[in-house]
TrEMBL record:
Conversion of NADPH, generated by peripheral catabolic pathways, to NADH, which can enter the respiratory chain for energy generation. GO terms for biological process: 2-oxoglutarate metabolic process. Residues 339-446 form the Pyridine nucleotide-disulphide oxidoreductase dimerisation domain. NAD(+) binds at residues 175-182, 198, 263. Transmembrane segments: none annotated. This is Soluble pyridine nucleotide transhydrogenase.
Length: 465
C-alpha cells in the first residue's frame, strides 16, 4: 500500500456508461467501491457531450420541424437549454444512485502508481487508493487532425457542436460515420445545406447495404451532398470567416462552418499506464480479452476505451460483465445479440447478421420486407419511406437478422432481438397478433413476404398471405 491509501475492493476510473454500470454492479455484490471522476459532472461523455446531448438535440429538432412553425427559426440557445435540462437531470440520477449504494466519488485526475494503486489529484492535493480490482472506463474524446485546426467557433468537433449557430447557411461535415451522419441529418432538417465528406466509398459500411442506401436516398432528398471516396487535405478560414475544405482530389468545399467528426481518441494518455505495465495503441485504446481483462488480470477495461462499437448501451453491458467476471459471479452476455441504434433522420437500427455477412458465410437465407407505407401506423405517422427487413434461414426459417430504417426503429428492433435470442422462426412472427395500428405489424408483414418468396419456389409452407 502507498502511504495513507484507502483500500477498496474495486476502483472504477470514469463515471460514464461503462463506469457507472460497473460501479453499481460491484456495489450490489456487496463490494466497497470508489469511482474516480475528473469532471465536475458525473456521467462522462455519454451524458455530458455525446449520447444524451446529441439525442436530445435530435428530438428538439424533430419537434420543431414537425410543429410546422414558420414564425421564427429555432435558436442555438433554445437547443442548448433543452440539452442542459436533460443532462443535468441524468447527472442527478447518477449522483443519487452512487449515494444510495455507498459508492465513494473521488474528484480529480486518476493515474497509476502501481498495479494496484491509483493516485487521484485535484486542486486540493492528492489522495491514494489501493484496490483488489480496477476497472478502466475513461471513455473517449473527439480525435483531432493537425490539418484541421479546430477553433470551437467555425471549425468545431462533436464536443462543441452545440455552439453551432442555427443561422449558419452552409455546413461541411468531415466523416461519414455514425456521428457525422446523425448531425448531417439534424442540420438538413433545419434546412441547412450540408456537404458530407467521407474517404470510404459508402457511408456506414457496417450497416446492411440496402438500409444504408435507403438512408442515403432520404438524406439527399433533404439537401445533403455526399463527397464519397474523398479525403480532406487541408482546412483554412478566410478573412470573412468562411471555411474552405481542400480535398486531395483538388476540390474546394466552402461553408460557414465545418464539423470534424472522424473517430474518437480514448482518454488514457494521463493514466500513467506504464506504472502497471499496460500499453495503449495510437488511438489510446487498451486491448482486453473476452472477459474484459487487460494483460494485468486484476485490471479490466470497458466502453469506448477498448474501441468498437463504442455504443453507450454496449458500454453499460461491458462494465457490468467485467465486474461480474472480476468477482467470479456467473454472467451471460451475448454480443451477437447487441442491437445497434443510429439516430439519423430517419433512424436506423439492426440486430443479427447482414446480407453481406450471410453471403460471405455461405448461409442459405431469404429476406422478407415490410414497407411502412403498407402499414396503417406508417400512414398515420406520415412515414411512407421506412422499411423493416428480416433475414431468415430458408430451410429452418430461423430468424437471423432484422434491419430497420424509419420512425421508431430503435424501439422496434427489440422484438427482433428477442426472437433471434430464443432462436425463433418467422412462423412465430406470422402466428403473433400485434396491436393495430402499430409499426410492430411490420414483423408479421415482413414474415409473410418472406414466406411468399419461399412459396414461389414451390417449397412446403405453413401459412400464406
Amino acid at each position: 500500500m502507498t502511504r495513507s491509501a484507502k483500500h477498496y475492493d474495486m476502483v472504477v476510473i470514469g463515471s460514464g456508461a461503462a463506469g457507472h454500470h460497473g460501479a453499481i454492479q460491484a456495489a450490489k455484490l456487496g463490494k466497497k467501491v470508489a469511482v474516480v471522476e475528473r469532471s465536475e459532472a458525473l456521467g462522462g461523455a455519454s451524458i455530458n457531450t455525446g449520447t444524451i446531448p446529441s439525442k436530445t438535440l435530435r428530438e428538439a429538432v424533430l419537434r420543431f420541424t414537425r410543429s410546422g412553425s414558420t414564425d421564427h427559426r429555432i435558436s442555438a440557445s433554445d437547443l442548448a437549454l433543452r440539452i442542459e435540462e436533460v443532462a443535468s437531470r441524468e447527472v442527478r440520477v447518477f449522483e443519487s444512485q452512487f449515494r444510495r449504494n455507498d459508492i465513494d466519488v473521488l474528484r480529480g485526475d486518476a493515474s497509476f502508481l502501481g498495479p494496484h494503486t491509483v493516485r487521484v489529484t485535484n486542486e486540493a492535493g492528492e489522495q491514494f487508493c489501493d484496490a483488489d480490482h480496477i476497472l478502466i472506463a475513461t471513455g473517449s474524446r473527439p480525435a483531432h487532425n493537425e490539418a484541421i485546426p479546430v477553433d470551437d467557433v467555425s471549425i468545431i468537433d462533436t464536443d462543441t457542436i452545440r455552439r453551432l449557430r442555427t443561422e449558419h447557411h452552409v455546413l461541411t461535415i468531415v466523416g461519414g460515420g455514425v456521428i457525422g451522419i446523425e448531425y448531417a441529418c439534424m442540420a438538413a432538417s433545419l434546412d441547412i445545406p450540408v456537404t458530407l465528406i467521407e474517404r470510404r466509398p459508402r457511408i456506414l459500411d457496417f450497416v446492411d447495404q440496402q438500409i444504408a442506401e435507403a438512408l442515403s436516398y432520404h438524406m439527399r432528398s433533404q439537401g445533403v451532398t455526399f463527397r464519397l471516396g474523398e479525403e480532406v487535405e487541408e482546412v483554412t478560414r478566410s478573412s470573412e470567416g468562411k471555411v474552405c475544405a481542400k480535398l486531395k482530389s483538388g476540390k474546394q468545399i466552402w461553408s460557414d462552418a465545418l464539423l470534424y467528426a472522424v473517430g474518437r481518441q480514448a482518454n488514457t494518455d494521463s493514466l500513467n499506464l506504464a506504472a502497471c505495465e499496460l500499453a495503449a495503441d495510437a488511438r489510446g485504446r487498451i486491448q482486453v480479452n473476452a472477459n474484459f481483462q487487460t494483460s494485468q488480470p486484476h485490471i479490466y477495461a470497458a466502453g469506448d476505451v477498448i474501441g468498437f462499437p463504442s455504443l453507450s448501451s454496449v458500454a453499460m453491458e461491458q462494465g457490468r460483465v467485467a465486474v461480474c467476471r472480476a468477482f467470479g459471479v456467473p454472467v451471460v452476455s451475448v454480443p451477437e445479440l447487441f442491437p445497434y441504434g443510429i439516430y439519423s433522420i430517419p433512424e436506423i437500427s439492426f440486430v443479427g447478421k447482414t446480407e453481406e455477412q450471410l453471403t460471405e458465410a455461405g448461409v442459405s437465407y431469404e429476406i422478407g420486407i415490410a414497407h411502412y407505407r403498407e402499414i396503417a401506423r406508417g400512414q398515420i405517422l406520415n412515414d411512407t419511406s421506412g422499411l423493416l427487413k428480416i433475414l431468415f434461414h430458408r430451410e429452418t426459417r430461423q430468424l437471423l437478422g432484422v434491419h430497420i430504417v424509419g420512425e421508431g426503429a430503435t424501439e422496434l428492433i427489440h422484438i427482433g432481438q428477442a426472437v433471434i435470442g430464443f432462436e425463433g422462426t418467422i412462423d412465430s412472427l406470422i402466428n403473433t397478433v400485434f396491436n393495430y395500428p402499430t409499426l410492430a405489424e411490420c414483423y408479421k408483414v415482413a414474415a409473410l413476404n418472406g414466406l411468399n418468396r419461399i412459396n414461389y419456389s414451390g417449397e412446403p409452407h405453413l401459412a400464406n398471405s
